[in-house]
Amino acid sequence: MATEDSGSGLNIHPMDQFLIKPLFGGDGTIGLFTLTNVTLWMFIAVLCIVAVMVLGTRGRAIVPSRSQSIAEVIYGFVHKMVEDIAGKEGLRYFPYIFSLFIFILVANVIGLLPKSFTTTSHIAVTATMAMTVFVAVTILGFFKNGASFLSLFWISSAPLVLRPILALIEIISYFVRPVSHSIRLAGNMMAGHAVIKVFAGFAVVTWIAPASIVAITAIYALESLVVCIQAYVFTILTCVYLNDALHPHH
Amino acid sequence: MAIEGDLVQMGAYVGAGLACTGMGGAAVGVGHVVGNYLSGALRNPAAAAGQTATMFIGIAFAEALGIFSFLVALLLMFAV
Q1: Which of A195, B48, B54, B61 holds its CA 20 to 30 A away from the CA of A7?
Q2: Domain boundaries, given as residue ranges, for chain A
Q3: What is the complex's ipTM, to 2 decimals?
Q4: Is A230 exposed, middle or buried (0-12, 13-18, 19+ CB in 10 A)?
Q5: How far is A232 from chain B (nearest CA, A)?
């Protein structure tokens, strides 16, 4: 890109927005219980969720008010998703899946506000959620099905010679699930915000500042869509893994 | 003309540029999924609504690999 105006080159640091900083200064070290900006923005996300879901439905009106209607739409959407994919037995785990969906959605959307912090762009946050899903689904699979949970890896519709190789491939892809589950969400969030920051850095150069602003608007629109889709995809993959655990027969 | 600077850093930047070629495959993959969904939906519009969830799952899987390659590029640019 044109760097004639910037001397030694564009000095942009798009990854600085993902740094974790303690809230109350101190000496900058982050211990186990330090309040950081991640903590603050997660707390704000939970406050928003409580405001919509709990306070919105407090009236319990038959004809819903606006915030009750929003809460009901989100509830119905996730309920239908869990029921369609995991069946009636999957509805026992609906509270957990709903918590995942609403937290990821609200945390992602809050990250779109200027000067805020996207907590789900950190691998630490998404890997915790993905590992919890993986461990919970595996333990659930063994509890519900005993040893026949391993029939998930033994494809009975394939020729007998191929089954050991397929079983090995299936086991490897099973263990890659939490990796891809977490990196998909974190990577999408980090990539979107880093791209916005890089385009914003180009606005320093006078001649391409208008193009930079148009590009930021376009990427922001795409990012708004990606935010909702990524929350939906995380949840629907959780439902698919849950269905695999509850009904492992190929 | 003498080249100044760190050879390791140059390797990191060149690697970042090479890693971006992975995103082309991801774009083709996502387009393939959505194109197949569209051609199926135009033949059988009534059955199309039930498969939007499958389409989104397919898009997410195909896009995830492009995101992995972008992540490698970003890590090489700014975190090495």
Answers
A1: A195
A2: 35-246
A3: 0.71
A4: buried
A5: 9
